[in-house]
Each structure stands twice: as C-alpha cells, then as structure tokens.
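User: What would this chain look like folded?
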Amino acid sequence: MEPYGRWEQVEPGIKRKIHPPGERLMMMEVAFDTDAVGAEHSHPHEQYTYCVQGRLAFSIDGRTVYLSRGDSLHIPSGCRHGVRALEPSVLLDTFTPLREDLLKK
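Assistant: Here's the prediction, encoded as structure tokens.
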C-alpha cells in the first residue's frame, strides 16, 4: 500500500500525511500537539517548511527560529534541525529530491 493521503503517527504528539510525489519534488503535512518534539536530524534533501497553523520553535544548526502561521523556513541540504510545537501546529513540508526513505514505508 502506498503511504499517500493517510495520516500516520510518527513520534509522540506528531503525525504526518504524505501527498503523492512528483518526479523530483514531494510534499507532506505534519501536525503537532502542544510540546511535541520532532527530534533533531539532518538529511541530504533540501526542505522548505510553511507554517499553516500554530507556533513552533525550530533548532537549525544551533540557532532557534520561531515560526507562526504564514511563516516559512528554508532548510538547506545536510543542515541539522529539529522542532518543538509551542501550541497545536501544522506544517507543510516540501522536499527535493524525493525522500525515498519516507516513500518506501
């Protein structure tokens, strides 16, 4: 079964929905409960994240960046990043190239 279009729990208080990908670009929604933490990590993919709802604190290469509804953040390839939701929040993430690690689940 393809992982598209259904919500899946990925960490405590965090769920995601992967949308059908294009050839080199993909998108997913990520929903957070208050105080949910997306563990710090890095990947070779370039990422843009857009805050649809809520407020979040991103750790990005050792600095903190706050996002609120309507804000966006570019995360370069290989950059260490993580996030904590300050209130119930939703992000729209885009990646290039495709996150094959997420699509193969």
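The chain has a mean pLDDT of 94. If you want, I can go into more detail on any region.
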